[in-house]
Design a protein that fits this description.
The protein is of the alpha+beta class. The chain has ten helices and 30 strands. Strand 19 and strand 20 form a beta hairpin.
Length: 490
């Protein structure tokens, strides 16, 4: 039986006009020269340059005064190191120094791809057959730095998406470091990162069982102040700093629209990208609560780290690394419900096959179980998931991707047992979605890819990326898809 696929005309393209403010510095020597030149200006000149700058850029950003002050404070150590008392600078001169230490960054300039979709917590004031949804995208700008951006939309009874007007300003969140860290878990993660205990025991022993961010940094600083610190010890301290900086919360302003919020890389562990966030609404049967999670890949330019974010309201997000021997490689995706009392997670620990893991703790994953191997020509290179499985009365609907000849990415589907997802009920032998001729061109050609779908009005709503450049979505009849899967038992 042929599965009818309705590709919708709507497309999401990268928008270079969506810019954020970032701190800019070319190093201490450059900043010293800048200081010397700005300090030679008299106050009327300072006021004039600042007024010109605000006139040109105030309409593009919120709270530029606050941004300039914050960025000036970041160069304060250099200012004082060169004999300029910070508290003697006028507010206008501080803001001007901050303006010279600020740049715009177009978060979506290069690509808007790898979409995920979840139900919006707010389902009020809708007509029958409608659902309010939140779409997330991997946005990529200059230097291929990836972040997460959002769009809000309404799916109508015909499965058409009505995109809510996108906000005018886009801004990063304020970073808030987690208050307390568990010493035992931290030591476990250091062991998994192969950081030798002999280089860490000295300062870890001085910490209590629950310690604060600054306590660890101060302990490491004291270690570095010692006369004899080996290169290996210094490397270990750098790696530990990288690890602790991967735990943090971010908070957006309460008056920002969802489309104006960007989760931009803020910690050392992800300075080169927050990649392929797979959002899921997880229902907890114990207390009947619903919380939104997303697994993602943090990339620092050399190393990847699987991480998890959690939110209840899309204003505050907790970011944390995933632990355990199963938290390896890319392609982790949470199940939306516990199975037999445990959390469940998909993984691709070897970079080739699909695995499944169970855990009583949502951040610790061990003992991955092989679930699927590439079997068909369109996926023989490797396979992986396309987001969290979807619950249906007949089983878990698992959207997969497969890589075939010429590294062409296609999307497939499997059906897993509800009580034991290691049991595959059915699996499509042919891909559900392949790149059409008009979808083959992009940053990475010949790719269709998704990070999450949902079910609405008896249909599979499947957002997908077009060759790592733009995004669209397709609608598939769920009854027809299920019938084909039941007839394709392997």
């Amino acid at each position: 039986m042929q599965i009818p696929i309705l590709r919708k005309d709507i497309q999401f393209f990268p928008d270079p006009s969506r810019v954020i403010t970032r701190f800019f510095s070319n190093g201490e020597l450059h900043t010293k020269s800048l200081l010397q030149r700005v300090m030679m200006l008299d106050e009327p000149q300072v006021r004039l340059i600042l007024e010109q700058t605000l006139r040109e850029f105030a309409g593009r950003h919120r709270n530029l005064f606050e941004v300039f002050h914050r960025h000036c404070e970041q160069i304060n150590p250099i200012i004082e190191r060169y004999g300029i008392p910070y508290d003697q600078l006028t507010d206008q001169r501080k803001m001007l120094l901050g303006a010279y230490s600020t740049m715009e960054y177009a978060v979506e300039a290069a690509a808007l791809f790898n979409p995920s979709i979840v139900e919006d917590p707010d389902q009020t004031f809708l007509e029958a057959g409608e659902k309010r949804v939140i779409l997330s995208f991997r946005a990529t700008g200059e230097g291929h730095i990836s972040s997460v951006v959002f769009r809000r939309a309404i799916l109508d009874k015909e499965n058409n998406l009505r995109i809510v007007k996108v906000g005018k300003h886009i801004e990063m969140a304020e970073i808030i470091h987690k208050n307390l860290y568990d010493k035992k878990r931290f030591i476990t993660k250091m062991s998994e990162m192969h950081i030798p205990e002999k280089y860490t025991a000295g300062f870890m022993e001085t910490l209590p069982e629950k310690f604060e961010y600054m306590m660890l940094l101060n302990s490491m600083d004291r270690m570095l102040e010692k006369e004899f610190v080996s290169a290996e010890q210094r490397k270990a301290i750098v790696e530990i700093t990288w690890l602790i900086d991967s735990y943090y919360d971010v908070q957006f302003q309460g008056d920002s629209d969802l489309s104006e919020r960007v989760i931009f890389p803020l910690s050392a562990s992800e300075k080169n990208g927050i990649e392929d966030a797979r959002f899921v609404r997880l229902y907890d049967e114990d207390d009947h609560s619903v919380k939104v999670y997303a697994t993602y890949t943090a990339f620092n330019g050399q190393t990847i780290l699987p991480k998890l974010l959690a939110t209840k309201d899309f204003y505050t997000f907790r970011m944390m690394p995933l632990l355990g021997n199963g938290a390896q490689n890319k392609n982790l995706a949470l199940f939306p419900r516990k199975i037999n009392g445990n959390y469940a997670m998909l993984a691709r620990v070897d970079g080739i096959n699909n695995y499944i893991m169970y855990s009583s703790r949502i951040t610790v994953w061990n003992n991955p179980i092989l679930l699927q191997e590439p079997e068909f020509p369109w996926e023989l290179n490797h396979m992986g998931n396309c987001g969290s499985p979807l619950w249906t009365p007949e089983g878990w609907l698992l959207i997969t991707h497969g890589v075939g000849p010429m590294r062409r990415y296609c999307i497939g589907v499997s059906l897993l047992s509800l009580s034991d997802p290691t049991q595959v009920i059915g699996r499509l032998k042919e891909p559900l979605l392949v790149p059409l001729e008009r979808e083959r061109e992009g940053y990475v050609p010949n790719v269709v890819y998704s990070c999450g779908a949902l079910i609405h009005n008896d249909s599979l709503i499947l957002p997908y990326a077009i060759s790592d450049y733009a995004s669209s979505y397709a609608v598939i009849s769920l009854p027809v898809l299920m019938e084909v899967l039941r007839n394709n038992h392997l």
